[in-house]
Amino acid sequence: MIQSFQKCFSVFLLFFCMTLMAAETPLKITVIADHSDWVYNLNENVKFKVSVTQNGVLLNNVKISYEIGPEKMTTVLKQTFNLINGQLLIDGGTMQVSGFLRCTVKAKIQEINYEGKATVAFNPEKIKPTTTLPLDFNQFWDNAKAENAKIPLDAQMTLLANKCTDKMNVYQINVQNCKIGMRVYGILCVPKAPGKYPAILHVPGAGVRPYSGYVTMAEKGIITLQIGIHGIPVTLDSIVYENLKNGALDGYNTFNLDNKDNYYYKHVYLGCVRAIDFINTLPEFDGHNLAVAGGTQGGALAIVTAALDKRVICLSSFYPALCDVTGYLHGRAGGWPHAFNKPSFVTDPKVETSKYYDVVNFAKQLTVPGFYAFGFNDESCPPTSVYAAYNSITAPKTLLIAKEMGHSSTPEQQNRSNEFLYKQLNIK
After folding, report:
1. What is the reported pLDDT for 109?
2. Is the peptide bond before 129 cis (omega within 30 degrees of 0)?
3. Which of 50, 130, 253, 278: CA 20 to 30 A from 241?
């Protein structure tokens, strides 16, 4: 009995160790381009180098498949290949128009799927928007802001004692927006020490979730306000947000897209301005040094807010969404939420409404310095769409590309963004 137990335990231990080793040493597919910056001129051929490794060692006799084509669009080259020595050099072709070409490599080993990709740029600085600027764009938003300003702010603050620190008071706040009884909620962090402080408005990425505020950044001597966009408290139980995400707010990004006065993002954009209104009521705010920052949907909102509200003196935008969303109607990638990549969804009223909310048209209005960051491998906010907005900016701009990154950022990009904001806000 004891010997049988020992034998079983030994087998279990061996299996456990093998499983642990496998978990610690996953297979990796690496795809790189033959230009170190992954940038090419039109009609210049690109070659992709593929490597399949484990523990840094090339694997022999690995079957892969690869696809090459303009990002988010129809594949122009698709093949299956057996890597004899774990490497392959692929002739990726070229592009005749400015944009991005993506090579995606996949392998299935022991029922596990692996993937690697590289996305290269062809004259990205020449990418032009496909959307157009409505003649009444500025009038539309000036009127919307003027109407919203008539709604009493009715600011309410609730101290969150369990989140406060010895340096910082933390509150859940809410203010009225768009109509009586409609609110914007957020987490406010204010330094306890007497004095006047700069402020940063943090605008959120897509989704439905709670928020906890930017306490660490606030402890450097900055007022921080992180807002939600859905008009609900941001400190509820997580199940509430999960139910809303899968229920009433599922697909919120296209609600009423056929009507520019009722599209979901109207109250979102105006809510960002109301957050600026609120910050300006705080006795601790220094009255001038105010930035806005965010990524993905928040990257879009950072640009929109800085364009709509001249009290913002600088912005930081990571991989902004909602950029050049009509790209799909012109044979190239459009921005998140990719509404127009489904022909059955496209109507003239929706396309026309999108122009009043497209980040490209807000980017054209910017007058303040901005920091921008994204990666070439981003599937959610394609670099073609982001460059359409970035190239439309005439205000001072700083760009940091992490070409291998998808819909995420590097520590360097985050650090450079913070350095930019601190310098603009005169934070030592």
Report:
1. 86
2. no
3. 278
Under 8 Å between Cβ of 275 and 175 = yes
Round to whole Å and give the CA distance between 170 and 211.
12
| Per-residue model confidence as pLDDT tens digits over 42-72 | 999 999 999 999 988 999 889 999 999 999 9
The confidence band for 26, taking pLDDT boundaries of 50, 70 and 90, is confident
Reported confidence tier of residue 25, pLDDT bands at 50, 70, 90: low
Are 110 and 19 spatial neighbours (Cβ–Cβ below 8 Å)? no
Alpha carbon of 57 to those of 33, 50, 60, 122: distances in Å? 20, 13, 10, 32
CATH of domain 24-124: 2.60.40.1930
Are 358 and 134 within 8 A, CB to CB? no
- Helix ranges restricted to H, 25-161: 137-149
Residue 208 CA to residue 256 CA, distance in Å, equals 18
67-92 average pLDDT score: 94
CATH 3.40.50.1820 range(s) for the chain read 137-424
Read off the tokens for 137: 């764009």
Q: What residue spans in the chain does CATH classification 2.60.40.1930 cover? A: 24-124
| Sign of the CA dihedral running 228, 232, 236, 241 | negative
Taken in order 304, 367, 354, 136, the sign of the CA dihedral is positive
* CATH class for the region spanning 137-424: alpha beta
The greatest distance separating any two alpha carbons of the chain, rounded to the nearest whole angstrom, comes to: 86
Residues in the chain: 428
Q: pLDDT by residue (tens digit) across 97-144?
A: 999 999 999 999 888 999 999 999 999 999 999 999 999 999 999 999
DSSP letter at 379 equals S
What is the distance between the alpha carbons of residues 40 and 227, in angstroms, rounded to a whole number? 40
pLDDT at residue 20 greater than cutoff 60 = no
Residues near 82 by Cβ (< 8 Å), separated by ≥ 6? 61, 62, 63, 64
